[in-house]
Design brief:
- It is a single chain.
- The chain is mostly beta strands.
- The chain is 3% helix and 23% strand.
- It has 1 helix and 12 strands.
- Strands 4-3-12-11-9 form a 5-stranded antiparallel beta sheet. A 5-stranded mixed beta sheet has the order 6-5-7-8-10, with no helix packed on it. Strands 1-2 form a two-stranded antiparallel ribbon.
- Strand 1 (4-5) and strand 2 form a beta hairpin.
Length: 216
């Protein structure tokens, strides 16, 4: 018995339409027609930055790199730039604080000599404080890994977040040596959040103080 192969691969005794699925059969050849490539529907929520569909629960947009966790587009090669800042921009002074160092009295750690302070602006909505590490995947906006390296700063130490009300909040990220505010004797506990404003000091590590400045 002569049979014919329909485009879907069924063997049919009829030479015009498949007697299994009804597909039209070409009598010029029995080989099935090549199947069309399947169409994959991308149904993820659009990226807020570029509109590209999100791949499942992936943290970063595959098109522009938008971070769904922080609401920012990572700038891995651009650190926090030095002042002067744009009009209306919060800034911070970072320096080795001798008073804070002496109050800690960490055995075996010496205060760095010949240090200078630096001014940076605080880009909303979040500013990570810590030390950059390729192996640990940390790239904080305020990177304290440069000399003089503060040995008491964790790679992911603390986080500054600008709230929708325009108030900066500081949180400890489970650092080894804690995050202190102003002259308080006890550090923030891991995950604890406090508001900070103009002139407030955030102390991290063995000697580093970060002083916030409101826009002029």
């Amino acid at each position: 018995m002569t049979t014919f192969t329909c485009p879907k691969g069924h063997e049919s005794t009829a030479d015009d339409y498949c007697d299994t699925c009804g597909a039209k059969i070409s009598v010029s050849g029995g080989a099935p027609a090549p199947a069309a490539a399947p169409t994959v529907a991308i149904t993820g929520e659009p990226c807020p930055n570029c509109g590209f569909p999100r791949a499942g629960a992936g943290r970063f947009c595959e098109d522009c790199g938008f971070d769904h966790s922080t609401g920012k587009v990572p700038t891995l090669t651009q650190p926090v730039v030095a002042a002067p800042a744009a009009t209306g921009q919060w800034t911070a002074t970072i320096f080795a604080d001798r008073t804070y160092f002496d109050a800690n009295a960490i055995e075996g750690v010496e205060f760095p000599a010949g240090t200078t302070q630096r001014e940076v602006y605080l880009p909303a909505p979040q500013v990570r404080i810590g030390r950059k590490s390729s192996s640990k995947g940390t790239d904080p906006e305020i990177d304290l890994s440069a000399a003089p390296l503060d040995p008491g700063v964790s790679h992911a130490h603390a986080l500054l977040t600008l709230s929708v009300d325009g108030v900066w909040l500081v949180s400890d990220l489970g650092s080894t040596n804690g995050t202190y505010l102003n002259d308080e004797a006890k550090p923030l506990t891991a995950g604890q959040t406090r508001s900070v404003g103009n002139g407030d000091n955030v102390h991290v590590g063995a000697w580093t103080t970060i002083t916030l400045h409101a826009p002029a």
